[in-house]
Design brief:
elongated, two-stranded antiparallel sheet, alpha+beta
Length: 50
């Protein structure tokens, strides 16, 4: 939900998934309640490579 009133905020979720393209399998997924997912990308890459 987005609002343009002063002092209001935007509520949202970010979802990420990593897929094994050779076997067409979902490797890892995550949903976060952060407004930005930039800090989450590195963590997702580490988990995917493990």
């Amino acid at each position: 939900m987005a609002s343009s009133r002063r002092g209001s905020s935007v509520i949202g979720c970010n979802a990420r998934a990593a897929v094994d393209v050779e076997h067409h399998l979902l490797v890892v997924h995550e949903v976060a309640h952060h407004s930005s997912d930039r800090a989450q990308l590195g963590k997702m890459a580490v988990v995917t490579l493990a």
